[in-house]
Amino acid sequence: MYKTSKSTTKIPLLVPDLPTTEELLPWLKCIDDNKWYSNFGPLVQEFESKLTEILNSNLTTVSSGTSALELSLLALDIPVGSKVLLPAFTFPATVTAVKHAGLQPIFTDVAADNWLLNPSIARQIRKKISYDVVIPVTTFGHPQPVNEWDKFYSDTGIKVLIDAASSFGVQPIGKNCIITFSFHATKPFGIGEGGLVIANSIEFIQQVRKLSNFGFENGVIIKSGYNGKLSEYHAAVGLAQLERWEQIIQRRKKIWDIYQDYLDKNTLQNMPKNYIPAILAVKFNTKKSIDYQFQTRRWYYPPLYKHPAFTDIPKFGPETENDLPITENLSLLGIPFHTSLTEDDIIYICDSLI
């Protein structure tokens, strides 16, 4: 696809793998026939029904992964100003959802081996400060240990909301945790824009659903929400995407297998052993500016507490207050990972990193 050694065109970092026009047309024809475009239409209902069959859990779709987080926090119905623990090493949407829900975020560190906020860290922080909700993130698609988080909830009573934005098809569901996914175009399962909320409690899912429709219940607003519904057009993409999902998984697996053949062993130390990453980020130790012939990104850099909007948010490290040594010293370079890559592309990328 690319001739990077001779071309000035760089290999792109992310390329969405979405249905073609031909694959979408039957579903778009359904929208034309139904004349129903939003407000929990028949395609949204069908999409949710098929997702329920796959995941065997209570769920509702929403307009984005960020909406999934924010609506879940609103549905927990905890007092304004309640404290929410989350990693400082994640995408800003996690913390903005907390702030928009009227809650107080608290930053903490991640584990050195997989860059996750895990139950052990959450227990250590609990010895220093109380909090009401914890939001672990599936960093780069790395699944969270849901059974351990279920036990954490059973032991502490603290609500666990897993931000599994990029981990659809990878993150186990569990019993006590609320789990949210993103269907953004660049995610492994992308539909352009959309999100999903999963929970064991059907009452909780019903509350999220009401809040995604402004909070209406029997024609009146019981609790204030906003317009966070999934449209029929996005559901159409989702239904077409489900039909090609296994093909996408196999293509992504092939790309990951090739990367593992050519990546340096030291680079692979923090890489997944039994799942396909959503984003490929490698340790980046040089301070030199390198003009690679492929696009790169410093993922989750700078840490959230260094963004001007978040400098007033308190942070607590597992060992020392205000000290998050793993997050502070993480220097990761995002490299291309998508189904449009060829083996030659991957070889060139890996050789460039040596």
Q: Output the structural class.
A: alpha/beta
Query: Helical percent range?
Result: 25-40%
The percent range for strand residues is 5-15%
Radius of gyration: 21 Å
According to CATH, the homologous superfamily of the largest domain is Type I PLP-dependent aspartate aminotransferase-like (Major domain)
Mean pLDDT value: 94
Classified by CATH, the class of the largest domain is: Alpha Beta
What is the helix/strand order?
Answer: HHEHEHEHEHEEEHEEHEEHEH
The major sheet is characterized as: 7 strands, mixed
Question: How does the SSE layout of this entry go?
Answer:
Layout: H1 21-34, H2 42-55, E1 58-62, H3 65-75, E2 83-87, H4 93-100, E3 104-108, H5 119-126, E4 133-134, H6 146-156, E5 159-163, E6 178-182, E7 195-199, H7 202-211, E8 216-217, E9 220-221, H8 232-262, E10 280-283, E11 297-298, H9 325-329, E12 332-335, H10 343-353
Parallel strand pairs: 2-3, 2-4, 4-5, 5-6
Antiparallel strand pairs: 1-7, 6-7, 8-9, 10-12, 11-12
Helix pairs in contact: 1-8, 2-8, 3-4, 3-7, 8-10
What does the model show?
With 354 residues, the chain is α/β, with parallel strands linked by helices. The strands form three sheets. A seven-stranded mixed sheet has the order 1-7-6-5-4-2-3, with helices on both faces. Helix 3 (65-75) packs parallel to helix 4 and helix 3 packs across helix 7 (202-211). Helix 6 (146-156) links the parallel strand 4 and strand 5 (159-163). The protein has helices at residues 21-34, 42-55, 65-75, 93-100, 119-126, 146-156, 202-211, 232-262, 325-329, 343-353, and strands at residues 58-62, 83-87, 104-108, 133-134, 159-163, 178-182, 195-199, 216-217, 220-221, 280-283, 297-298, 332-335. The protein folds into two domains: 21-239, Aspartate Aminotransferase, domain 2, CATH 3.40.640.10; 245-353, Aspartate Aminotransferase, domain 1. The chain has ten helices and twelve strands. The longest helix is centred in the last third of the chain and has 31 residues, at 232-262.
